[in-house]
Amino acid sequence: MNRRNFGRLLAAGALLFSTITAVMPVPAMAQAGKTIVGGFDVGPGGFQGNFNPLTATAGFTWLNTYFEPLVIYTSDLSKLTGALASEFAVGQDNLTYTFKLVDTKWHDGKPFTSADVKFTLELARNAESGSIFAARLAGIASVETPDERTAVVKLSKPNSAFLSVLSQVMILPQHTLSSVPLKEVAKSQWWSTQPVGTGPFKFVKYVSDQYVEMAAYEGYRGGKPKADRLINRYFANPAAAVAALRAGEIQFTFAEPDDANTFSGNDSFRVIEGDSYVVNYIGFNHRAKIWDDLRVRQAVMYAIDRNAIVSSLFGGAAKLANCGYVAPQLLPKDLTGYAYDPQKAKDLLAEAGWDKINGDKSIPWLTYYNTPQVANVMAAVQAMLAQVGINVVPRALDVPSYNGIVRSEKWQDFPMIYAGLQNGPNPASLNIGLNAAQIPPSGNNIMRVEMPALTEALDTAMAETDPAKADVKWQQVCKEMNAGLPWGPMWVASRYGVASSNLKDFFWTPAPAGGPFISHPEKWDIAP
C-alpha cells in the first residue's frame, strides 16, 4: 500500500473513531521537602485509580513503591531475585518452593511474618476475592509456615511460570486486611484510604481523580528514602502528561514515540527507550460466533498492511508478530507471515460466506488504549478492513470500564478488541490469555479461547521445568497460535518514558504491566 492511499485510509477511518476521556483538574499541592511528582499511571504502564494489586492488570511500577512481592525481576528483566524473600529455593520434585523471609515491618510498625505470605496467597488464589490470579495460583496445594521467617509453598503439579506469577502478587498485611469480608475485598475502600505495605513509601492520601500522595517510610529496611514524598498525578491522556512535564509540573511520564522524539537532544530531559515486551493483538471473542470460521480470522490478517502501519505510525519502532512472540528462540521455522493481500482476504471471506455470517453489520471494536497513536492505528485498520467488507467501529474506554465489560458475559458488547498481552520476559505470560482453564472469572482469557491443541501446547510448556527443553515447547505454542489464530497478532512496539534531568538515581524500564522490577524508589532523588 503506498503512502498516499495509506494516508487517505487513515483520514477516512479517523472520522469514525470515538474516544471516551475525562479531563482531570490539576491538583494544588504544597511542595514541602524533596517531592517527586510523576505521571506514573499514564499510558500502558498503569491506569487511574489502580490501588488493588489483586485486580490490577497494570501499574506495578507505582504499586511497587509501597507494596512488595516475594520475588521480583531485575531491572533488565533477565532474571528473578528476592524481594520480601531474602532467599528462595525449588525442591528436586519441582513442586516445593521454600522462601526465607526478610526481617522487616509493615508501615504501621507490625512485624512482617510468614502468616502474611500464607494469608496473601490464599486470598489471591480465591476467585471470590476478585483476584485475577486465582487460575494462575490454582495449582497451590498448600502453604506452610514452619516459623515466622519461612514459608513453604507446595504445588499439585510442576509449573515453570510459578515464580514469575509470584513477582506480581504483592504481599498484604493479614492483621488489617483480614477483617474485610472476602466478597468485599475487591471493592473495599481499604485500598484507597488506608493501605499498609512494606515498601519504601507509605500511603498518605488519595484525592479522587487527581493524585495519590506517598511519604517516605523512615523504617524501610533499605534505609530512609532520599525523597520525602512521591506524588502520582492522574492525566486524561499521555499528551496532557507530556505538557505537564514540559511545564515542570512533573518529573516523569510515559510518552508516545512522537512526543518522546521531541525531547531528543534536550539536556533538560532524558528519554528512556526499550522493548515493551507486549504483543498487541486484535482479539476475536470466540463466544461471538462471527469468528468461528478460521478463514474469517485469516482474512482479517491478510486485510491489514501491518508493515505500512509500523512504518508510518510507529516510525519503524515495532516488530511484526506472527504468534505471541518475537524472541528468536521462541520462533519456529515456516510460520505463515500473513503478508498484506486484500484480494486474498476477500476470497477467504467469500468462501466462508461472510455475507451470511455478518454481512455489512458494524462490529464494536473496544480498546483500553487511550492515546493518539492507537487512535490512528485503529483508524487505519478500520479503513483497511472496510476495504474487504468487514465494518468495525473503534471505541476507547477507560481501563476500569473496559475490564468490567470484557470480564463479563456480555459478548455482544465486545466481539472484537485491540489489546496487549505480555510476551516476555517469561513466555508463560501468554498462558493467562489463551489457556481454556483461564476463562473469566478464573483467569484472564477474556476472548474465551477454547482450542484444545493450543491448551495442550500451553500445558506442556508450562510443565517443562528444564530450561534446555523449554524453548522447543514454547515454539509449539507459537505454531498453534500462528495456524489457529485464536487472536490476530500484530506487533511488539518499543516503549518510551521521559524523565527530567533533575531526577537523580531514577530508574524506569518499559516492563509489561509496569513490572514490577528492581527500581530502588528509596534511592530516587531530585535536585533542589
From TrEMBL:
Domain Solute-binding protein family residues, every copy: 80-428
Organism superkingdom: Bacteria
InterPro entries: Peptide/Ni-bd (IPR030678), SBP_5 (IPR039424), SBP_5_dom (IPR000914)
Localization of this protein: Periplasm
Keyword Transmembrane helix among UniProt keywords: no
Chief location bin: periplasm
Pfam families linked: SBP_bac_5
Signal peptide (residue range): 1-30
Keywords for the protein's UniProt record, in alphabetical order: Plasmid, Signal
Stated family: Belongs to the bacterial solute-binding protein 5 family.
Protein name: ABC transporter substrate-binding protein
Phylogenetic lineage: Bacteria, Pseudomonadati, Pseudomonadota, Alphaproteobacteria, Hyphomicrobiales
